[in-house]
Amino acid sequence: MELVRCADAEEVATRAARAVAEVVRPGAQICLAGGSSPMRAYELLDAMDLAWEGVDLWYGDERCVPADHPDSNHGQARARLRAPGAVWHPMPGERGPDTGPTVYADELGSAIMTLTLLGMGPDGHTCSLFPEHPLLDATGTVAGLTDSPKPPPERITLTLPMLNASLGLLLLVTGAEKAGALARVLDEPGRATPASLLARDRLTILADAAALGG
Question: Distance between CA atoms of 63 and 155, rounded to whole angstroms?
Fold first, then answer.
């Protein structure tokens, strides 16, 4: 894997925005993430003069809430990134964790992500793949869960095999509270830290000084 050391969260967001900008071209399949650092990256992307026509925008996970709900990843992203001409593919959170994954899997079809943006929680989870959760063994492309340890409990997420099929994985990590999880990601892969299970041969980590313990 590649570890890029950044001074602060703003540099993480800036570098993430540049990484996305580099792959914006017709036919690109880009997977977006929720979280504060990605949202700042979307604001920076929105200020760039990019040709979004022919780009497909997907999501790594979503809460089972309507798109206009404050917890909606899609709603938050769309409020920051216009991406005129891009084709948006919001996860159907309003369809719930049973029907929603099937609908999104059908929409995905055989798409392979050009670049997947990811965040990480202090417990090491990424997307809605949580430590020691049975969904770490899911073999399809999209799965639903009803027992997320973080509210809301009902969510839809891409599976680990789908994430690892991406041509590029970009993990954004900021804040001292994530230092322990980041250290585990940089060590050995393990189910206790789902982000450590990402494909290392195509993973780039953007981490700020706080997450790296100074």
Answer: 4
Name all contacts of 74-78 with Cβ < 8 Å and 24+ positions apart. Answer: 76/34, 76/39, 77/32, 77/34, 77/38, 77/39, 77/42
pLDDT at 35: 83
Q: Which residues contact 181 (CB under 8 A, 6 or more apart)?
A: 120, 121, 122, 123, 124, 173, 193, 195
User: For the residues of 102-121, what is the DSSP string, one character each?
Assistant: HHHHHHHTT---SEEEEE--
CATH of domain 2-208: 3.40.50.1360
Q: Tell me: the pLDDT tens digits for 11-21? A: 999 999 999 99
* Three-state SS at 143: strand
pLDDT of residue 179: 97
Q: How far apart are CA 77 and CA 195, in angstroms?
A: 22
Digit-coded pLDDT (tens) for 91-128 = 999 999 999 999 999 999 999 999 999 999 999 999 99
Strand partners, 88: 57
Could you tell me the residue ranges of all domains in the chain?
2-208
Which of 17, 73, 71 has the alpha carbon at shortest distance from 46? 17
